[in-house]
Design a protein that fits this description.
single chain, 202 residues, alpha/beta, Rossmann fold, 35% helix, globular, disordered N terminus
Length: 202
Amino acid sequence: MVLDKSPKWVLENDWIQIQKEFEGNLPSIVLCSETFHKIEFLNGLINSFEEHIIFVDMDLLYTGYVESGMIQQKDNVTIFNPNKVDWTEKVATICTKISKEKFVVIIDSFNGIYNMFNDLESSIFINSCIMLFSSLGRQTRSSVVITAMARKKEDDEWILSPGGRHIIKSEKTGIYFLKKIKNNLVLTSFNDTDSKGIKIKE
């Protein structure tokens, strides 16, 4: 892993710095524009952790890779596939777990959540659930990582793609952008914001 002043990480074999970043920024939102890069990143991230991992698979892509055998199911990973009916029950289960011991919670993805809950009231509820995960996670040094397929508008604002929803953020939220350069996955951290939205540091 190469660390420079951006800060930017080239993800190779050493994920320790990324783990520390995600532990210190709750929630950590990873934006990307390519689905396959997202899955490659999540698989590498999961393989780097020894802690118990709760994978909330909202778009069923990761589950499909596991069921097909293209990604090996790890013993420390529990996959949840919640729907609109059992969402509250699954949230309560996750809260109970992360309030007692250290976990890594991965939610894949914002897009899948918003496809399931498409009204404003539900969006507020979803944001509240994520902030609750983050609050409980800080007490047990857990991590909460959320992926989002996003695109950059002409005014430099990042929005979910498709759908055009804005990305939630707070002072304690870590925002990252994932892309692939040649054969390397590159994760860039950027937390500068202005009235137009989030910008990547050059």
